[in-house]
Amino acid sequence: MSSLWGSSAALDTLKQGDVLNSSQYLVSAKQRFTLGFFSPTSYYGDKKNSYLGIWYTNYKENIVWIANRNRPISDDSRAFLTLDHLRKLMINSSGFGGDPFVIYSGGETENTSATLLDTGNLVVSEVNSNGSIGRSLWESFDDPIDTLLPGMKLGVNHKTGCNWSLTSWLAEDDPASGAFTLEWEPNTRRLVIKRRGVPYWSSGLQVSSSKNVSLFEYIHPTKGQDYIINTDAEGQYFTYSLDTEFDSLDQERSAWQLQYWGSIMDRSISIMKMSFCYGYGMDDEGCETWNQPECRLMGRQTFEQKSGIFTRIGPDGLPQLAAGVFDNRPTIGPADCRDLCWHNCDCLGYSGKEGTGSGCQYWEGNVTFNPDDGRSRSRILKYVLTKEDPSNKG
């Protein structure tokens, strides 16, 4: 194997035998996108596991694709990406503690290369005997994570068997598969968000097909984006493109990202008209309705993010710090914590576990929340149950 920079490979391409180590990058031809190893940073500045990902070159915090979301690297100092002579595109690292992570395993093609395009798509292609690029063998656009870039699809291709959908991160600093999915529903021609497989929100019906006007009832109009719905013999899908009439540096980094709390954001702007769904079904702009616990029906309860501590009255009659109940399961994130607390009528508040992206802490029973304007010794913000006027949206 040869180091990428020591070979004749272009900066946007891996050829067979090339190695990309943890301090090196692939950069697309016009430098729009970068591929390399990264470590997510939490709200508190902590870093832990590493991943191979793609991001907008000038906005590294905007990760648009991850190769190994559910198989993190504990030590990226020895991690490297290679396209070997058996046509396998894979990540090797002692931090895996096991076999390499294979991204693509080639077939009978003799020569292949992997190129990062200016669309953000990583494409493995066959290389013809004269050195020209032949047919595409695999592409990252067919293996989406939580992000829909212009030109990517949501839906199904009956010919290839591809079923395109997005799955949120588990938590802010944990890219593992989370609670929410975004799918295209061809029968109703709607975008649908599901939480753990249960319908949560939908875009509503198509209301317009003119340029730069929202196609759907419950999606905000976005200038410079054209929505495309395709139905043919090969399949049905939704995609969007950027209108060159509105071309700008900000528009160029457009990406629909399904957040770990269930919202769709594009450059920090909500695509959805509703920020969060509680399932009440009272003019909730696309939110689905589901059965509510009796205890939550009075006053349309919600959760508010606050800083402070929970206390309970001790044996001496004085307030004392109330310990939370922990749920240490590694497969649950903040959205699951909210749902579990919501369906437990004794639960008055919850938070994530400090220092981890997974797991929950709950406060139940005769406890009182005491806000402290950010002076709490705990770095974790709590979500505290409150009530609101039923005419407001929760």
UniProtKB/TrEMBL annotation:
<dbReference type="Pfam" id="PF01453">
    <property type="entry name" value="B_lectin"/>
</dbReference>
<keyword id="KW-0732">Signal</keyword>
<protein>
    <recommendedName>
        <fullName>Bulb-type lectin domain-containing protein</fullName>
    </recommendedName>
</protein>
<dbReference type="Pfam" id="PF08276">
    <property type="entry name" value="PAN_2"/>
</dbReference>
<feature type="domain" description="Bulb-type lectin">
    <location>
        <begin position="11"/>
        <end position="137"/>
    </location>
</feature>
<keyword id="KW-0325">Glycoprotein</keyword>
<dbReference type="InterPro" id="IPR001480">
    <property type="entry name" value="Bulb-type_lectin_dom"/>
</dbReference>
<keyword id="KW-1015">Disulfide bond</keyword>
<dbReference type="InterPro" id="IPR003609">
    <property type="entry name" value="Pan_app"/>
</dbReference>
<dbReference type="InterPro" id="IPR036426">
    <property type="entry name" value="Bulb-type_lectin_dom_sf"/>
</dbReference>
